[in-house]
Amino acid sequence: MKTKASNEVTIEFPSHSRNESFARSAAACFAAQMDPTLNELEDIKTAVSEAVTNAIVHAYPDSIGKVLVRLRICPNNVLELTVKDHGRGIPDVDKARQPMYTTGGEERSGMGFTIMESFMDKVTIRSTVNKGTTVTMKKKLAPRVRK
After folding, report:
1. Is 144 an annotated catalytic residue?
2. Active site residue: 20, 24, 40, 50, which one?
3. Class for domain 7-140, per CATH?
């Protein structure tokens, strides 16, 4: 069951590597309305960067496809970030979540999901081979005391 959001935005862009920084900035701008700390904002930007980079590098290794990013403000000061592609999918999600595992060649560290999990409170990965992958991440932001 989908949680009701008080605000949300969806952006879609081609899987060019230059669009990773756009997605990262867009997520930070959207999250800013929740008045995050600088550390929370950096966590959000890093997690989005990793998820979008995974979609660009792994979902569409030999072509340009679409990447969708949805950002939602949910109850209890929770930010939900979803990154979705319609690429080649992940044959073994459990294996892909292991640190240092990569299908991206020697230049890839294999730490994308590990980084996302370390910066977010919850990471859910749904993937179907040849249909794509959806990564949903949630982070509860600390309530700010107003003076």
Report:
1. no
2. 50
3. alpha beta
* Whether 19 is catalytic: no
The pLDDT profile of the chain, 147 residues, written as one tens digit per residue, is: 567 889 999 999 999 999 999 999 999 999 999 999 999 999 999 999 999 998 998 899 899 999 999 999 999 999 999 999 999 998 776 666 665 555 555 555 556 677 778 889 999 999 999 999 999 999 999 877 655
With residue 21 as reference, give the H or E element that holds it.
helix 19-31
67-102: b (≥16 Cβ within 10 Å) or e: bbbbbbbbeeebbbbbbbbbbbbbeeeeebbeeebb
Q: Is 54 a catalytic residue?
A: yes
Question: Measured between alpha carbons, how far is 85 from 105 in angstroms, rounded to an integer?
Answer: 20
Strand partners, 62: none
Catalytic residue among 54, 72, 80, 88: 54
Q: Give 126's DSSP letter.
A: E
Alpha-carbon gap, residue 61 to 87, rounded angstroms: 9
